[in-house]
Design goal:
197 residues, Diaminopimelate Epimerase, Chain A, domain 1, 2 domains, 8 helices
Length: 197
């Protein structure tokens, strides 16, 4: 089951982001998605394969099974399994991890581009992207901000967050990641300093 955040946890994270934005000249954006894609095709494909397997097993058990009887086994199996596989936790379990992460990564980069190209956007931007269903976390920063952070900082923030999420504390991990990103932004792009380009 994908972790979720309560309205109170959302409010706490938003308050932390707002506080950081008051202290830094850079834009900090936290995007949280329940899932990055519906993966609707996976439910249908897996249901079709499972229904075919059921029909083959039925044919092996009853060799005299005709085409009509086989269809009477296969079609209801397909319909029932499609409904079962539509349940989001099962659907997400059917999708290979690399595909889930590829979809989440694409969405993260689209979100970053949208914020970076927005009117009146500050020259320095950082996006903390979280897709809860895929358990995917990515930090995307503009080139200068990315280079200014100590080596391995972003990877450490993401790794710590994922550990907290696996331990069942998505909200705590997110708040910790926001604070860690904020510390880098306020250190390198303080509100009253001349922006680095």
């Amino acid at each position: 089951m994908a972790p979720t955040l309560t309205p109170e946890q959302h409010a706490e994270i938003e308050a932390a982001v707002h506080r950081i934005e008051q202290q830094s000249a850079a834009g900090l954006h936290v995007i949280v998605r329940h899932v990055s894609d519906r993966y609707a095709l996976f439910a249908v494909v897996w249901a079709a394969l499972a229904a075919l397997a059921i029909a083959l097993v039925a044919a092996a058990i009853w060799p005299d099974l005709g085409i009509t009887e086989g269809l009477l086994v296969q079609i209801p199996s397909f319909a029932i399994l499609t409904l079962v596989f539509e349940w989001l936790p099962i659907r997400l379990a059917l999708v290979p991890r690399r595909i889930k992460h590829a979809h989440a990564r694409q969405l993260a980069h689209r979100e970053f581009a949208a914020h970076a190209l927005a009117e009146h956007a500050p020259p320095h931007q950082l996006l903390l992207f979280v897709s809860l269903g895929e358990r995917y976390v990515e930090i995307i920063a503009d080139r200068a901000t990315h280079a200014l952070a100590p080596e391995g900082s972003w990877d450490r923030i993401v790794a710590d967050f994922i550990q907290r999420m696996k331990a069942g504390d998505a909200a705590g991990g997110m708040l910790e990641a926001v604070e860690a990103c904020g510390a880098i932004l306020t250190a390198h792009h303080p509100r009253n300093a001349e922006p680095l380009r």
